[in-house]
Design goal:
Layout: E1 2-5, E2 11-18, E3 21-22, E4 25-26, E5 33-40, E6 45-49, E7 59-60, E8 63-68, E9 76-82, E10 87-94, E11 99-100
Antiparallel strand pairs: 1-2, 2-5, 3-4, 5-6, 7-8, 8-9, 9-10, 10-11
């Protein structure tokens, strides 16, 4: 889990991520994936929201997808795991409102 402050100063974006690995390879199950919630500072309530600025599917263009949330900084690392054993990574950058490649 992690969160980002939104540019409006009134909300925070929370992310919850689950990814299971076996022997160093992504091994997806029914609970794997990334989910986002928006926290309202005034009402102190959190509501589910879609991934801001990108499609958070677990399978894209024939590859399984995992999301590594930042331990420091603001960016999410996206890893594409292909059936032939190769993988590719991209970085989603946070701009205060949404993520983009």
């Amino acid at each position: 889990m992690c969160y980002w402050n939104e540019a409006d100063g009134k909300h925070k974006l929370f992310a919850y991520n689950v990814a299971f690995f076996t022997d160093g390879k992504f091994d997806p199950g029914q609970f794997d994936g990334i989910q986002f919630y928006r926290y309202n500072n005034a009402t102190k309530k959190m509501t589910y929201c879609d991934a801001p600025g990108f499609d958070a599917r677990m399978r894209v263009d024939g590859a399984y997808v995992t999301y590594s949330l930042p331990r420091t900084g603001k960016d999410i690392i996206v890893t594409y795991w292909y059936d032939n054993g190769t993988k590719k990574q991209k970085t989603l950058k946070w701009n205060g409102c949404k993520f983009s490649f």
